[in-house]
Amino acid sequence: MKTWIFDFLQLFYPRLCLLCEIKLTDDEQYICLQCFCELPRSYSDRRPDNPVKKLFTGYFTINEVSHFLIFEKEGRVQHLIHSFKYHGNKQLAQYLGKIAAIEMRNNNLFNPIDILIPVPLHPNKKRKRGYNQSEWIAKGIESVYHCPVRNDFVNRNIDTSSQTRKTVYERNLNVEEIFSVNDAQALEGKHILLIDDVITTGATLLACVHTLSAIPNIRISIFSLSAVQAW
After folding, report:
1. What pLDDT score does 9 carry?
2. pTM for the structure as a whole
């Protein structure tokens, strides 16, 4: 009965690709296979000159750094990011996190991980948006790596203003000491994966890494669903 109802609804409300708007097949979710294959991939973890990892030079707590897609203004990746960041499509973030995690696991990247920590939003921003998009990316990764998502270890204490129109210097000033850690002892000796949606200058992640690096024997890896290629 449910299948019949679903098929009937598909006649009037077909599932369409978020990028090209063609009808999806039963095996496709959110994005058609052709559009998925055309997404600009970074393959950053395979590059000896990984440009994003260079942002964290000097932090000996950093283990691995990777991003899945290349973010370009007005590009396809931006369209997907905006869909789950500003238009409520949080399941898309989970789906993309899962797809990225399958590839990372096949390449033996980040293994083993103890804890997944999404970069937190300030409570004001989370209340306005309704959810933390990085947490939903983390949920997709959790389904593959089978380690817990914890959003209670790191607090965002300051509601920073939008970074979009700031210079690099202003962005770095804007995120100084905005994070704090709960129960640092529970993270001692752990390998955590810090998860974000977009890396621009890396200032926010650097601030978070700086705070976490004070914990004894912690190892930090970083995954961002996308990054701007500006280095």
Report:
1. 46
2. 0.88
